[in-house]
Amino acid sequence: MVGGELSERHCEILEAAAGLFAERGYAATSVRDIGEKVGLLGGSLYHYIKSKEALFVRIHDMALQVAGDRIATAMAGKTDPWERLEAACVTMLEIQLDPHSLTMPLMNDFASAPPEIRERLVAKRDAFEAIFRELIPGLPLDPALDRGVYRLLLLTLLNNVSSWYRQGGMSPEDIGRQIVRIFRHDVKENEGVERVSPAR
Which segments constitute the HTH tetR-type domain (predicted)? Predict the structure, then answer.
């Protein structure tokens, strides 16, 4: 999850902190916990980090970057809008439903974060979800469908699959494909289908 120009020790601290934040949540993880995990006292740990808040924001941003890069790679080379959407949905679920993944717990732990960083976390999450905001306009949807509502419903469903998913059943890939199939309101596919007025 980490690397680049960081020292080996710095990477070790980031990995340890990410694991603790994902396992316990922001509020239940202390700087002392992180220090004990990597064998450093508090004073020595602050040589590598500014604060617990800054550390969490950095790890959260890195998790989003990893997720965004994986989705972009999955969509690369695909031109059909439905295939691109399916690749994005499948990859997001593979990340979210991986029991060893640190990405989604970090991305979703907003409630316990202090207000001074929560706004930034939400803004970063919104920027990540812009991937889907850019995909939806290219879909050949029925003009009667509101694309904003369509996007929000899709993201809500994707973000909540983990609440009912059980290993041993359908794979994340199968679930992602089923979701896209359900959301596929293709104009051509719906031609000739009689419209039913909503019940009042």
Answer: 7-67
Which CATH topology does 8-49 take? Arc Repressor Mutant, subunit A (1.10.10)
pTM above 0.70, yes or no: yes
Domain pair 8-49 / 52-183, same fold: no
CA 77 vs. chain centroid, Å, equals: 22
Alpha-carbon distance of 198 to 200, in angstroms, equals: 6
Residue that has been written with the tokens 């732990």 in this structure: 109
pLDDT (tens digit, 9 = 90+) per residue, 126-149?
A: 888 899 999 999 999 999 999 999
Three-state SS string over 86-137 comes to: HHHHHHHHHHHHCCCCCHHHHHHCCCCCCHHHHHHHHHHHHHHCHHHHHHHH
CATH architecture of 52-183: Orthogonal Bundle (1.10)
Q: How many residues in the chain?
A: 200
